[in-house]
Amino acid sequence: MDKKIIGGLGAGVLVLALAFPLSNMGARTLEPAPASRVTHPALQANLDFYANSCVDCHSDAAEMPFYASFPLASGMIEEHREEAMAFWDADRELFVSGLPSEAALAKIQQVLETGAMPPASYKALHWNAGVSPAEKDSQLSMIRALRAELSPGYDDPNDPLLARSIMPIVDTSGSLDPAKIELGRKLYHDTRLSVDNTLSCASCHGLDMGGSDEAVSSTGVEDQKGPINSPTVFNSVYAVAQFWDGRADDLQAQAAGPVENPMEMGDKWDDVVVELAQDPVFVAEFMAVYGPEGWTAEQLPEVVEGEPLATPAELTAEALTDAIAVFEMTLVTPNSPFDRWLKGETDAMSADAIAGWEIFDAKGCDTCHAGQAMGQTSFEKMGVTGDYFAARGNPTDVDKGRMGVTEDPADMHRFKVPTLRNVAVSWPYFHDGATRDLDQAVRTMATYQREHQLADDEVTKVVAFLESLTGEYKGEPLDG
Ligand code: HEC
Ligand code: HEC
Ligand code: HEC
Fold first, then answer.
1. Which of 129, 163, 197 marks a domain boundary?
2. Which residue in 31, 143, 374, 467 is deepest, having the highest Cβ count within 10 Å?
3. pLDDT digits (tens, 9 = 90+) for 224-259
């Protein structure tokens, strides 16, 4: 071939090869819609970094380059984006009003530390994408600062314990009113909250059973089998929302549910209130906490032979669920071997447990099981890297997870990530109670969340690590 033509072709290729990256050189900004959602100043200050390096694949709000509509490019970009969004959706997790979740922060931290993002192929075409050492440092320090805001008991962003996505539990319940806690404790164990006075909260969330009931799904009044596994109540105070699908905003809202759930306690709060009002001992204790200032037992409603006692105006479902919620805030389990190890007690964990932690960390299990509770901070898809439900069969209504509440198809099969604290004593596992075997639960997670088959000895080590997460309640290690 003529040298000139070859030269011309070469120059053409060169021009083309430069055209894409050069066209990508301009500084990018995030489209106004997601940017305007972001209210936290630390996040606002960092939006340009994410716009330049991440949003093309992790956001629907990315402004696409001119070649994105070319046949080949558009297919490739879409494919990348779908996969990327399945793993990490910045629109939902980062460009939010208020604070992002601890899981979202853990995910960013992981890719910053491994250097996996943005992918090398992307950097080849986007010369100003990528993470410089200075950018990495500033993102990590933003993450620590946000973590300090998110984590009760941690105030100093420079606390070295905030450098990891998982922190030791700090029991901050000392500031709660002891009389309220005691009232809540009694109500939690009171069977008068169920229609036939057979069940209390503790029936399905035994404090001596890891906060759960050791059943695949719970049994309500009249022996009714419920559709879903009962989660532990320990460390539920750390949860973004309550229930597997997050349908209750907080512990107080949650506590209202089981009493009136026909499949659980089957009662009515109005009837519970009337029943409790007939118990002068209870009313005295209740009014001492919720009654007007200076209330004394002499003000107890008068007992008239054969007539029901008057119900004090303060005695309401709202007050009762408040007391239960305050009691539940004390159900935290600090001082596990892992927490002591994190704080520098080097012999608190066995060699196997430490090796298990390293596997857990390296495989990114902490990107969902993050925060003090090692979970509870986000709703994540069960089956990121495989179809868990197709493999299991027998679909049920509760398998929809979060979508059952939001009706957003993107929430299909998303569940509130369960805490891994005390996981060794709160079997069986998963929302469907699929297994009571922790080995199996670990294998399932590795396969469906991380696309990774763990070797037998790796599973043994991860389980040894999970066993080191059993903490103390009232100074005693939790029982299963
Ligand atoms: C060219 C597209 C592309 C860009 C740009 C990109 N990612 Fe990704 N990202 C992906 C893909 C594809 C995956 C899916 C799994 C994988 O390849 O690791 C992913 C996965 C992730 C995950 C989940 C990792 C895990 O193992 O759970 C996070 C978090 C993430 N990216 C963050 C970022 C951040 C932060 C940036 C910017 C600094 C970024 N990504 C830039 C394509 C991209
Ligand atoms: C019949 C058994 C049963 C009884 C009784 C019961 N629960 Fe539950 N509890 C469950 C089940 C099952 C779930 C999970 C339901 C779901 O997520 O859809 C649950 C969920 C919870 C959660 C949410 C935990 C989390 O991580 O999301 C809390 C907290 C809780 N219950 C506290 C209570 C309290 C307080 C009472 C008493 C007022 C109570 N439960 C009575 C079975 C029961
Ligand atoms: C993408 C998020 C994500 C990642 C990554 C992840 N998990 Fe999970 N994990 C979940 C969700 C969601 C559930 C609840 C699923 C369900 O009930 O259907 C769960 C449940 C569990 C349970 C059962 C807890 C219980 O009380 O029911 C264990 C054990 C567990 N994960 C361990 C791990 C291990 C070990 C890894 C790493 C190999 C891991 N997880 C990685 C999201 C994740």
1. 163
2. 374
3. 999 999 999 999 999 999 999 999 999 999 999 999
pLDDT value of residue 10: 59
Measuring from atom 8 of ligand 3, which residue has the nearest CA?
Answer: 445
* Predicted TM-score (pTM) of this structure: 0.94
Distance between CA atoms of 74 and 345, rounded to whole angstroms?
53
pLDDT band, very low/low/confident/very high, at 122 (cuts 50, 70, 90): confident
The reply to whether 264 belongs to the active site is yes
Question: 461 with 397: CB under 8 angstroms?
Answer: no
Indicate if 306 and 347 belong to the same structural domain.
Answer: no
pLDDT at position 315 is 97
- Position 34 scores a pLDDT of 84
* Ligand 2, pocket-test mutation among 254, 269, 377, most atoms within 8 A of CB: 254
Domain identity same for 119 and 254: no
| Total domains in the fold of the chain | 3
99/191 same-domain check: no
422: left (phi over 0), alpha (psi -120 to 50) or beta: left
pLDDT at 348: 98
Sequence-distant (6+) residues with CB within 8 A of 453 are: 443, 446, 447
Report the CATH number at residue 236: 1.10.760.10
Residues with CB under 6 A from ligand 3: 360, 363-365, 367-369, 380, 382, 384, 415, 417-418, 420, 423, 426, 429-431, 441-442, 445-446, 449-450, 462
